[in-house]
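The protein record filed here:
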Amino acid sequence: MAGLSFDVLRAGKKYRLINFGEQHEFVIENILVDGDFKVKDLLTLERYNLKELVEYGRGEDFILEEIE
């Protein structure tokens, strides 16, 4: 595991998450009370919760990083 942890994510910032070979780029729209985040995918414009991307665990290639 490398990169940022979930507790340093900020609303309005853009991030890239790589997990199990899948890459997602998103912007944090809202920080939810339960520690989850409402995000908007930068490629598909789909909205979902960040926990949905890691619900099956963290792979050996897991990385979370801020992007410009």
